[in-house]
Amino acid sequence: MTARTLYDKLWDDHVVRAEQDGTALLYIDRHLVHEVTSPQAFEGLRLAGRKPWRTGSIVAVPDHNVPTTDRSQGITDPVAKIQVQTLDDNCKEFGLTEFDMSDIRQGIVHVIGPEQGATLPGMTVVCGDSHTSTHGAFGALAFGIGTSEVEHVLATQCLLQKKSKNMLVSVDGQVHEGITAKDIVLAIIGEIGTAGGTGYAIEFGGDAIRALSIEGRMTVCNMAIEAGARAGMVAVDDTTIDYVKGRPYAPEGETWEKAVAYWQTLVSDADARFDRVVRIDASTIKPQVTWGTSPEMVVAVDTCVPDPAAIDDAVKADGMRKALAYMGLQAGQAVHDIKVDKVFIGSCTNSRIEDLRAAAKVAEGRSVADNVKLAMVVPGSGLVKQQAESEGLDRIFIDAGFEWREPGCSMCLAMNADRLEPEERCASTSNRNFEGRQGQGGRTHLVSPAMAAAAAVHGHFVDVTEQG
Amino acid sequence: MQAFTQHRGIVAPMDRPNVDTDAIIPKQYLKSIKRSGFGPNAFDDWRYLDEGAPDIDNATRRINPDFILNQSPYDRSSILLARENFGCGSSREHAVWALTDFGFRAVIAPSFADIFFNNSFKNGLLPIVLDEKIVDAMFTVVAENPAVEFEIDLPAQTITAGSETYAFEVDEFRKHCMLNGLDDIALTLQHADDIKAYEQARQKTAPWLY
Ligand code: SF4
User: Which ligand 1 atom sits nearest the alpha carbon of residue A432?
Assistant: First the structure.
């Protein structure tokens, strides 16, 4: 048999039938559902008189619209309330598992899937959300889909897909002390660009990726979509298997042994061929800060905001000028000198326990700077929150002047009340710095949790590997 | 789904790369549980000077006169001419619904983000990928003759812009669905037996998945 990549193997194992032109009917093992992209799909199902093909494959949770402050009053926004209620109703009507707002297991869909063991190695995982790529950290084939495709998976358990090309991004060597998964992935996007991965499935490999925890790998795969790739993935190893063991949805006993034996094959063969290989020297990666309105507009914290005048490509230079104007920044300005108004630690990129620990380490014994109007920490799930509280992280944050919230997407996209006002500047651990993403006119700088906490206590960006 | 065969229409030039789905339809409108009604809020942050919300009447809002879709004849355009990586970001199909609801039938760009590209076909919005040089030439044609209409012929896979006609590629299966306005769920369900057979076989080799 010819040598295959991890992606090839995952693909081959899920093809139900292949058409002449290369389109395949691909079987979906796990379907994650949230309130924003599913109502129209359920409605379509009802209108056509169809039923979900396999209810056991579905796990649903409200996350985008839920309030992160006191929930005892329910949702006050009437439109958001209807949407969350619609999810509850649909789950009841079709008999689906849902972790509703009052459930301790509720949280961001990409945090709770892995936490419950609902995401397993070797699975195909889809969700009506582009950051479904997160689940690729487990050696799974995971990608975001639109609402029509959500309906298609509900009705048929399959998707019509064309295979992507294979890309390997190898981060070789070791990163320096204090450099996190977020810095690695931002550096990768800075290197290949936001469209660099379009048409590819990216496997992240190399020593620096191997050395990451599962949480770190999820952060990296989460942002594969920000590099244009629908799916990102990391090969299975002991780190993966140790994380999965004992989770509620994970297999047990004999089946566990059988599963592990299969999972261990989920690595690219030594001589597998990739259509594109990108190598990055881990030792060159510094803490990253985005300066513009696209994740590829990123620099190291100890440098300056770049100058469009130095760029030959006219379309690109124009895009940079627009971004600088929107962000209220000057070319050549030192990143250290950029002051922030708000700090957001959360989102499916960086709201897991490891992220909160890293931020708390920086915040401990310090206080939020006077010029920072709001610094908030939003855990990724009820269980992450509980764990953090048992470690006393909530006290560290609260004592330093951070707000400690209930789990949800929150200010990552500002669909609920958490948002930026026009021209407010935010250090954010989320994944998108698009115009208006965190509130109309808001200015987002993407950073790691430690960098966000450091910005909160200093009032501006600092190199956390130097200043702590 | 609305079928697509031939289409002729005014072409709105949107001369910026990486137009993301957050820009096409901002998040506050995603709270809707419907598929329609997004047109008046397509490109909302760029189209209006004040901030919108689902419960605000758009007729009362301040229009941004500099935004292309607010200018005649582009307020009647049905073809969008765009730059690379169009539709990047969020998977929200609401972006496609907003474009079709505005009246767009096709988007031309040198490249599209994958999820947006897929979503378009499911809703009768034809995404056409053309070489960057051709897209450049098209921007010039529109700049020189703002009211020019392009003509798209899906069966022939051609697009006529000014005096030139260009060929474009489209996946056979998708073309078939677009031409006939087919619901692909029904097509997939014709293979229900294959899906069941796959499940039975897989259940033996990977029982933990079931
Ligand atoms: S945290 Fe942000 S990126 Fe993640 S699922 Fe929620 S809205 Fe999307």
Answer: 3
